[in-house]
Specification:
Layout lengths: L1 E6 L3 E9 L2 E4 L3 E2 L5 H13 L8 E5 L2 E2 L6 E2 L11 H9 L3 E5 H12 L7 E7 L3 E7 L2 E2 L19 E2 L4 E2 L13 H5 L1 H12 L5 H9 L3 H25 L4 E4 L6 H13 L10 E3 L6 H11 L4
Parallel strand pairs: 1-5, 5-8, 9-14, 14-15
Antiparallel strand pairs: 1-2, 2-3, 2-4, 6-7, 9-10, 10-11, 12-13
Helix pairs in contact: 3-9, 5-7, 6-7, 7-8
């Protein structure tokens, strides 16, 4: 039995996990973002509710554990940012602690209990406020000990001439400090920047997708450019990892026509030929971070 948590900037979700099919979710608690001792007390209270001594504690965080320094980079919870979080929590809780990025926990959940079930290589894709991902091979998370694997949204690789007829695009500034990242053009906010650049009209990503599905020409051009920008790097990820399924989460995954269009474009650009969709909607729609943390702690291997 293990205790698992999904740590957010607003709330901490906890659960007691006995097996992949027996994850008992507990009421969420407010996150003490500026007080580490209070943060530990919230975790300890969930540990204390366990019917037996847990084997370990597993956390999903909206951040990264630097593989060199082992320090946490978690902007939305300042009291744990910059800490050697694993060591600090092990000392405070008296239990082994495992920590993974929320995108990594998302793909663990999909590989274990979602759309990736039965696949050896699963690459999980986040298309929402940001563009992210994670990789599971043979039931094991590549980033089990921290690291940046799966961060395909960050590198200056976005095309600057796309579409039919071709249009010129700037190398948009990304929050990571680089220019030309997929995150800067293919996140929800990136789609909005593309639409504004192409048509000098401000619309939300939801409005753009809805207009595209309704057959409106400007939105169709935006989505065409968006898909072309996104499909080539994702096809490269598929070739490099050998993934046989790519479950997608995040706000943009709510449009099944958008995912179907992306899937067709990716499959046209990869070496392996599939007779089934590769890019699919994630099926663990509720608490994937918590489920992934549970599987991380349980040592799920598929």
């Amino acid at each position: 039995m293990i205790v698992c948590f999904d740590i957010g900037g607003t709330a901490i979700k906890g659960a007691h996990a006995y097996s992949p099919d027996d994850i008992r979710v507990l009421p969420r608690q407010p996150t003490p973002i500026d007080d580490f001792d209070a943060f530990v007390r919230v975790l300890q209270a969930v540990v204390d509710l366990a019917e037996e001594r847990p084997e370990c504690v597993a956390l999903s965080i909206a951040g990264i554990i630097d593989p060199d320094s082992q320090k946490a980079v978690v902007a939305n919870v300042p009291c744990i940012n910059g800490r050697c979080l694993k060591d600090d929590l092990q000392a405070a809780l008296g239990l082994p602690v495992l920590i993974a990025n929320d995108a990594d926990c998302f793909v663990l959940a999909e590989a274990g209990l979602g759309a990736g079930r039965g696949h050896r290589v699963v690459f999980g894709v986040i298309l929402g406020t940001g563009v992210g991902g994670g990789l599971v091979i043979d039931g094991q998370l590549i980033n089990r000990d921290g690291g940046f694997a799966g961060e395909w949204g960050h590198a200056p690789v976005a095309a600057t001439q796309v579409g039919d007829p071709p249009v010129q695009l700037p190398r948009f500034q990304c929050g990571c400090g680089l220019k030309g990242c997929i995150d800067a053009t293919c996140s929800a906010r990136g789609m909005e920047k593309l639409h504004t650049h192409l048509h000098q009209v401000v619309m939300t990503s939801e409005e753009i997708v809805t207009a595209w599905q309704a057959g409106e020409v400007p939105a169709a051009q935006t989505i065409g450019v968006f898909i072309e920008l996104l499909a080539a790097p994702l096809a490269l990820v598929a070739n490099v990892t050998g993934a046989t399924v790519m479950p997608v989460g995040g706000g943009l995954s709510n449009s099944e026509p958008l995912l179907a269009t992306l899937d067709e474009a990716v499959r046209r650009n990869i070496l392996r030929r599939f007779d089934h969709p590769l890019v699919v909607k994630a099926t663990c729609r509720i608490e994937p971070g918590l489920i992934g943390a549970a599987l991380l702690g349980l040592g799920w291997k598929g």
